[in-house]
Write a structure and sequence with these properties.
The chain is α+β, with helices and mostly antiparallel strands. The protein has one domain (about 5-315): Methenyltetrahydromethanopterin Cyclohydrolase, Chain A, domain 2 (2-Layer Sandwich). It has helices at about 5-15, 20, 45-55, 85-95, 115, 120-125, 150-160, 175-180, 185-195, 220-235, 265-270, 305-315; strands at about 25-30, 35, 60-70, 75-85, 100, 105-110, 135-140, 165-170, 205-210, 235-240, 285-290, 295-300. Helix 11 (about 265-270) links the parallel strand 10 and strand 11 (about 285-290). The longest helix has 15 residues, at about 220-235. The termini are far apart. The model has no long low-confidence stretch (mean pLDDT about 95).
Length: about 325
């Protein structure tokens, strides 16, 4: 069985070896755990963001940058993500499935360490995946760095020593935050299918792209902008082998949600910032193309909505 923690740890080693090049700041805590600042105080950028995304996906994805049209004549940076292990990379690793709240520290946890802690356990039962490795690698979306007690908690949940835990940390409103959240465009499609009851193990390969949203000063606004990058401009192509995928395709895009049509921050504000009042179906890419190799058919659903994306990004022409 592939070990996503082992693969990710090799990426982390490269980041540590070239910390200055990636403009990240590693810290070894008193319990010998390692915290890598990728945007709290560090000035990390695109390259660190691409590696952060790869770690989130358990090392089972390729990430790259490209420059293409956001709307009409406006060119803008996009992240492109591809994986031949979509179920494991997206659900076993990248899914932000671990809410960490310890000692006044709060973060959403992603990455391969989740597979050791089984957060949440049901996810791993459904896709029949388990990992067993001596090191745990976690990616945290947070605006401050975890202390020893937080890292001790993560180590305990993962069943490893604190000295064998590495945490990558980046705030939502940071360059790395923008890159890694846009890099969840494929995960949005895979997660949506899983929630709809589709067996994601039928997905052979996945590719996606989304614009890297501008960094906002306010974290709440940034949460909206980073989600809108995929909701209104994310494009995903899936290669699937059976599973009756045709019945699921129309339900994948964000346009199938009742909350579709306005910038996410606006919808969230109207819901009085209560996630439980939101339709979870909104967390999906704008468009999907699905090739079912068991039938040779290809299906499409959804469409790019550049206008809402531009409104969310808040571009101002001078």
């Amino acid at each position: 069985m592939i070990s996503i923690n082992e693969i990710s740890y090799s990426i982390v080693e490269e980041m540590l070896d070239f910390a200055e090049d990636y403009k990240i700041e590693p810290h070894t805590l008193a319990n010998d755990s390692v915290v890598i600042d990728c945007g709290v105080k560090a000035k990390a950028g695109y390259e660190a963001g691409l590696l952060f995304t790869q770690v989130c996906m358990g090392g089972l994805a390729q990430t790259s940058l490209t420059h293409k049209k956001l709307k009409h004549e406006i060119f803008y940076p996009f992240i492109e993500v591809s994986t031949d292990f979509p179920s494991i990379a997206c659900l076993a690793a990248q899914k932000a499935g671990w809410r960490i709240s310890q000692e006044g520290f709060f973060a959403m946890g992603s990455g391969p360490a989740r597979a050791l802690a089984l957060k949440p356990k049901h996810t791993y039962e459904v896709i029949e995946y388990e990992d067993d490795y001596d090191f745990a690698v976690i990616a945290l979306e947070a605006d401050k760095l975890p202390n020893e007690k937080v890292m001790d908690y993560i180590a305990s949940e993962c069943g490893v020593d604190a000295s064998d835990v590495v945490a990558l940390v980046a705030p939502t409103n940071s360059p790395v935050g923008s890159v890694q959240i846009a890099g969840r465009v494929v995960e949005m499609a895979i997660y949506k299918l899983a929630e709809l009851g589709f067996d994601t193990r039928h997905i052979v390969s996945a590719f996606g792209s989304a614009p890297i949203p501008p960094v906002k000063k306010d974290a709440a606004v940034a949460m909206g902008t980073t989600n809108d990058a995929s909701i209104y401009h994310g494009s995903v192509t899936l290669t699937v082998d059976g599973g009756n995928i045709k019945d699921f395709v129309p339900k994948i895009p964000s346009s199938s949600s009742k909350d579709y049509g306005k910038p996410f921050y606006t919808v969230f504000k109207e819901a009085k910032f209560d996630f439980y009042k939101l339709d979870p179906g909104i967390f999906a890419p704008a468009e999907v193309v699905v090739n079912d190799i068991s039938t040779g058919e290809t299906y499409i659903a959804g469409a790019i909505n550049a206008d809402v994306c531009m409104e969310s990004f808040g571009f101002k022409k001078l």
